[in-house]
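#struct-help
A.M.: can someone run this one for me? Single chain, 314 residues.
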Amino acid sequence: MRSETMNENDTEHPMQAGEVVPSADGFQQAPADESGEWSLDARNACVDCGLARLLAGPATDIAEGKDHVEIQFKAQRRDFLRNPFQLDLHIGEFVIVEAEKGIDLGMVHLTGPLANFKRLAFAGRGKSPEFPVLRKATEEDLAQYRENTTRERETFDVCLQKIPAHDLPMNLVDVEYQFDRNRITFYFTAEKRVDFRGLVRDLAGVYRTRIELRQIGVRDEAKRIGGIGSCGQGLCCVSWLVNFQHISTQHARVQNLPFNPSRLSGQCGRLKCCLAFEMEEGALQKKETQRPQPEEPATSPDSEYYNEPLEHEA
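D.P.: on it. Structure tokens below:
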């Protein structure tokens, strides 16, 4: 990933029925009633199924206390933050946290012993510095987030108009304001390196704040935009999958899936991440079920049968 910056402004967060709000899987329609309050089921849904693996570990290794919490920001970005004021935080609550250069708003994704356990499990994996949680978000903070969301859409349109003026071969994907408006981040895709220094200066002159342009891959693009998979469910990378893993055609072969690129590819154009979900079981079944070669007949009391490979159906 590449980025370049220049200086100053930003925001984040709503909570009214039908409004766009931050959730465990990015920004979605608020699953709220007319009072604007999130339902308990919606908050519980914030916890991804990866916790099941943590719960299967040795309970004696789980650290007690409230000293760390996992906070989620836009597009599934999660960080472990310190809780120096021992705030009584619950999953789904919005909080104001210290950021790299200012403050930001995020949602509590994990608390208590499990947060500490998960933090230790990910220790040494290049996580960002642990900033502190400052306080719980107020109604004024949520109102400011809603205003920032509106500004993000307007800023996206402005940048979209300036890209052709600088003759840059890039595709703008998303715009994200930091809560205090001290930074605006523009996410884009491109086939090769792009010299966007002129565009950064142009945008900094318009918004008088720190500007960051960040080049991302097509998988990250799908993660930020969201969508519905061929299974009819929301994209895994948006709803719960945090880290991408390498997927190859071997995943399809092991599970005896017809290799049809159009059916095996996701919204991002790459092989679907879900091909890895049943890889172990598929390999085990293939090992236990040894099919005879086409030239080797399988006999029965009344006849002989020959194995034929599956056709790669469209």
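A.M.: thanks! The chain has ten helices and 13 strands.
D.P.: also worth noting: The radius of gyration is 24 Å.
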